[in-house]
Design brief:
OB fold (Dihydrolipoamide Acetyltransferase, E2P), five-stranded antiparallel β-sheet, 7 helices, 4 domains, alpha+beta
Amino acid sequence: MANVEKTEREKKLEAEFLELLEASFDYTPPERGEIRNAIILQVDANGDVIVDLGAKQDGIVLEQDLNRLDPEYRAKLVVGAEVPVYIVNPRDMDGNLIVSIGQGLQQYDWDAARALLGTDDVVEVTVTGHNRGGVLVHWRRLEGFIPTSHLITVGAGGNDRRDSLNTLNGRVLGVKVIEVDQDRRRLIFSEREAQKEWRQQQKARLLSELMEGDVVTGTVTGLRDFGAFVNLGGADGLIHVSELAWHRVDHPRDVLKIGDEIEVYVLSLDRDTNRIALSRKRLLPDPWSDAMNRYHEGQQVEGTVTNVVDFGAFIALDDGLEGLLHLTEMGDGTLTEPYSYVKKGDRLQLRISRLEPDKRRVGFTQRWGLPPVQTVMYDEEGNPLPVTPSEGQEGQAPTEPEAPSAEANTDEVPTDNVENNENSDNTESATAA
């Protein structure tokens, strides 16, 4: 019985020997640049890791290679774990087989990069530097490159372009993979080709997270006649010009500039068209809510001209309350057009002539306490016609005799203070004293 067991044992050992012998003929020694799967045999006290990669000798992962690994991944390096290794040196000066886990892990990233070629997938990269041809970026464990012609974040050329490139360091960009050459370690990305997909992805993400009524922070990225675009983190929303401030805004550049970081109120979300409507003025105090407590007719105020039109100028007080300074209320009241008297941006001293918070209207004057300017017309026979007082005199302080109201009936306007010019060669008109 013992002889039988010995025979079986010898047969098994012989079979294993033949298997090893056969494998030795098929053995391929590791070559520099090759990537193999390996099993961790030992974690050395000095920090090195010993691995079995099916070679005639075990591989050594040096401590400096391990230090470059992500701490979370490094914690998983225990005896028995399988890891990919890159052959750094098949035989160094001491005869050791030097391998790298870090470079071995990059193989997964190269495979992932090749899989992205020809797809519409957009990935995020971090800018680490730049040169004359473009910007250097980091993606997963790989270093890549974005040529200047494939950038949309910076201008076309000159010193301004170089300054813009300097400001990109640390920025995260959405890009597409356009070229992969692992042998030459060449990985090229394009921000331009990713722009459309990137914006759609980011806007879809924002629309899924945002709610109407939310208050968020964004950066002004564009100014147009109709409003301002604000980037909310990868996607833009629009503040219509009417939602920029409580007062009239002629152009968004009057209250904002590109690069401003502002808080905005989410007015509406259209998830079908991926549109985000924003408001700035909803976060500003409404100047009309307590206007009657802060202002009264006859009060002297200071305001800024926001727009000049044929019939006068619109004036905004510093709190946003806006009203009209009518042409007849400017200066001495004899102006025929306002453009030579005021311009946009001028600061003026005024008085409030009419205040109607319920209608969100306020009128201004520079002629408080002065009688209205009246023009007297004469007929062909030299007889004075009824006098029409200047408009916009509501709220003026009374004088002796009392100045007629702008809403007074012209038939009731006294003309006793008009000089008698009936004998002055049929003069067609004269101005009231």
